[in-house]
Design brief:
alpha+beta, Sulfite Oxidase, Chain A, domain 2, Immunoglobulin-like, five-stranded antiparallel sheet, five-stranded mixed sheet, 7 helices, 12% helix, binds the ligand Nc1nc2c(c(=O)[nH]1)N[C@H]1C(S)=C(S)[C@@H](COP(=O)(O)O)O[C@H]1N2, binds molybdenum atom
Length: 434
């Protein structure tokens, strides 16, 4: 039985989901509508999704029966094999990337995590897509993607996106929600237009304080009146140079699960600000109150609370920039290595830059400075590397600790919060030298 939040259960099983409800499973995974009289007719966005997931065109797609799971997904391993992602939930689809597969400076699309709050839209057609800018603007506008490309400067930027709940799995007592470990973060190269340019063209009125972002995904309940997610940011953040309305990801169209054909990319802030399947941005004179802006969603207590403490909703504040953090992407945890090891990874911190990354192999007794690259663009993560010579055979842990441009350093442990957000504790990987 689906749980209250609509998810299928702790151990997601694609096959179980298809066995229980093939029509809904088809729709959720492939945007394919299957009816008794039209079984398996796969086209448009649904076909594009399945093609992307199997990694090749499907010449005989017209013959494919509805409810058929491509044999390429015969096991979860094979599903992961294509993208290498770990499926946390299949309704909605949520999948993260193991740290060692995030080793690239620019995350390949195949390794960009997926965080869905609802059901992706059936229609992801770029040619008919529109984006409306309205609310307190002098000139409300509706653009096609071709209009955006022709009316505004098209820019390409490397920008990091991290889910506010990345690291939730390590909270004790546990916090409900997707049990992200380390891999709800990615840094792809995005192509699009600046949100700033589009808002300025619309004429931002002086009473505007907040944006409201809307997409075309649908609520898990199927209720068309409900929205899975509609978040926003203060207008000052929206008007910074590196917030993009993106139609390209790593030189191609956006991946269907990463918001095709149009999304926001708001680096440094919770990933939930980066609306996928974007079709409307409204400018408001109040803090946005859309789905998952209020209550306990993407909000944390305004004070330190004891682990497990009940906190009243009025004591929660909206998460703005994400905290300083780093990820070790080489070696993979659990690796058997020689004594000489190259440590690699990335570090990032909200709207700031990283000033240092230190690594330790003696449980934090001593630290050495890693070599640190500048960010590829304002809003990208920064790559670090360090060569260490381990003294003898045995068990080691590599720890990494980033410090940002404001002098804030990653902690050993963080304060608990009810929804398990903002876990930026140091990343540790286990090694055995043989
Ligand atoms: N329309 C829409 N946009 C969305 C979401 C969603 O559920 N619906 N999830 C958000 C969240 S919580 C995150 S962390 C990012 C993840 O982006 P990705 O799935 O491309 O990795 O998308 C954001 N944009
Ligand atoms: Mo998220």
């Amino acid at each position: 039985m689906p749980k209250d939040d609509g998810s299928i259960g702790g151990t997601p099983d694609l096959h179980e989901f298809f066995a229980k409800d093939p029509v809904e499973a088809d729709r959720a995974f492939f945007g394919r509508k299957t009816f008794p009289d039209r079984r398996g007719f796969l086209k448009g966005a649904g076909l594009a999704t399945m093609t992307a997931m199997v990694g090749a065109a499907i010449p005989f797609h017209r013959n494919m029966p509805g409810g058929l799971i491509p044999a390429a997904f015969a096991s979860e391993d094979v599903l992961i094999g294509k993208d290498g992602l770990t499926l946390l939930n299949d309704r909605p689809i949520n999948a993260e990337t193991p740290p060692h597969l995030l080793d690239d400076a620019i995350t390949p699309t195949a390794r960009h995590f997926i965080r869905n709050n609802g059901i992706p839209p059936d229609d992801m057609d770029a040619d008919s897509w529109t984006l409306t800018i309205d609310g307190f603007v002098d000139n409300p506008m509706t653009y096609s993607i071709a209009d955006l490309k022709s009316k505004f400067e098209v820019v390409t930027r490397v920008l990091a996106v991290e889910c506010g709940g990345n690291g939730r799995a390590f909270f004790d007592p546990p916090a409900s929600g997707n049990q992200w470990t380390f891999g709800a973060v990615a840094c792809s190269q995005w192509t699009g237009v600046r949100l700033k340019d589009v808002l300025e063209a619309a004429g931002v009125q002086s009473n505007v304080i907040y944006t409201a972002h809307y997409g075309t995904d649908t609520h898990l309940s199927g209720d068309p009146e409900k929205t899975p997610l509609s978040r926003g940011v203060p207008i000052a953040k929206a008007l910074t140079d590196n917030v993009l309305i993106a139609f390209g990801q790593n030189g191609e169209d956006l991946h269907p699960m990463n918001g095709a054909p149009l999304r926001l990319v708001v680096p440094g802030w919770p990933g939930s600000c980066s609306q996928k399947w974007l079709n409307r941005i409204q400018l408001r004179d109040i803090v946005h109150d859309g789905a998952k802006m209020t209550g306990k969603s993407y909000r944390v207590p305004n004070r330190k609370v004891a682990a497990g403490e009940e906190v009243e909703t009025k004591d929660f504040v909206i998460i703005e920039q994400m905290p300083v953090k780093s990820l070790i992407t080489n070696p993979a945890t659990g690796a058997d290595t020689g004594r000489s090891v190259e440590i690699r990874g990335h570090a990032w911190s909200g709207d700031r830059t990283i000033s240092a990354v230190d690594v330790s192999y003696d449980f934090g007794a001593s630290w050495m400075a890693a070599h640190l690259d500048a960010p590829a663009d304002d809003g990208a993560w920064q790559n670090f590397n360090a060569n260490v010579a381990l003294p003898a055979a045995g068990y080691y842990e590599i720890w990494a600790r980033a410090t940002d441009s404001a002098g804030v350093m990653q902690p050993h442990a963080i304060d608990w919060n009810p929804k398990g957000y903002l876990n930026n504790t140091m990343h540790r990987v286990a090694l055995r030298v043989t």
